[in-house]
Amino acid sequence: MNRKHSLKLGLVFSVIIFLIILASGVISALLAISLHMKVFSPPNNILYPILNLYAVSVIVGTTISAVVGKRILSPLVKFSGALMEVGKGNFNIQLDENKYHIDELKEMSQNFNVMVRELNNIETFRSDFIANVSHEFKTPLASIEGYTMLLQSDNLTDQEKNEYTKKILSNTKRLSNLVGIILQISRLENQGIIAEKNKFKLDEQLRQTLLLFESRWTSKNIDLDLDLDPITFYGNEELLMQVWANLFSNAIKFTPDNGTITCTLRRSDSFIITTISDNGIGISEDVRKHIFEKFYQGDKSHSSEGNGLGLALVKRIIDLCNGTIEVQSELGTGSTFTVKLPY
Ligand code: ADP
């Protein structure tokens, strides 16, 4: 709202107050005069002091209301201007909360600031999401295109042909995995319950999943520390395997050479609790808030392998099992993922 509008609003407010005082003054003066005339015989000059008093009270009342009105209206004018900015898509605007001494105005500005901050987060998430999705598709597609063009050139050695074909194949596989995991997440998002369940040994499943990654943890000389109680679980074996696979895969990926990965399995009265800990790079507070979002990767440069879908899939499976997943982590020290499944 510009200055012209603000002045107009202040003027309208003062005129309204003036008219109210004027009207109430006229009514009360008329009442007072008629009462006085009925009860006493009126002296001729009684009208003048009353009219003088009345005129003074109208002027003083209107002036006070104009000053007070300006104080009340100015935050509203500021608020309206800020809202206009938000309407234009500016989500960086903030009101000065400490400027207002009236509780309601202070609360209003605090709520406004929270709203704008949330809108800003949503906007950042939306633009990051689009950038991440397109990056995940564009990178392998660009590789495939590049190596296919190279393959078309004459006088390539057999070794070069072989190398380029391998690159094309691995990028095709990457794309196909990406599409596969997107379809799986979307299927699970539309699914309300897990239908196929059977009994299986959870401790055995954790060991077997780790074995799938043997070449990766041995090549990094990672030490494994397993402390698993023998527990039989009733659930979807395949989906739970994917949970452990993603958590182990991340633990190995984000742990440096000679690191340690610890896994425990315990049962409480109503839960089965699995923890997977590593002493790797850890996760900052800011990154932690987003790790379960689709396509989110802590490393914005996407230099580490992965597509940011693993933990989104894990979260969806755990939700379907009516369980919970929590992460505790300290940057540079390591991370612990705790999965609780209802028993
Ligand atoms: P990605 O394909 O990148 O591994 P995920 O969905 O599995 O995608 O994980 C999302 C992000 O969470 C990762 O990019 C990383 O920043 C963070 N993260 C997950 N697990 C760990 C871990 N054990 N240590 C450090 N960071 C982790």
Automatic annotation (TrEMBL):
The chain crosses the membrane at residues 12-34, 46-68. One of its GO terms (cellular component) is membrane. Residues 70-124 form the HAMP domain. Residues 132-343 form the Histidine kinase domain. One of its GO terms (molecular function) is phosphorelay sensor kinase activity. CDD domains: HAMP, HATPase, HisKA. Pfam families: HAMP, HATPase_c, HisKA. Keywords: Kinase, Membrane, Phosphoprotein, Transferase, Transmembrane, Transmembrane helix, Two-component regulatory system. Its EC number is 2.7.13.3. Signal peptide: none annotated. It is found in: Membrane. Its main location: membrane. It comes from the Bacteria. It catalyses: ATP + protein L-histidine = ADP + protein N-phospho-L-histidine. This is histidine kinase. The gene is phoR_1.
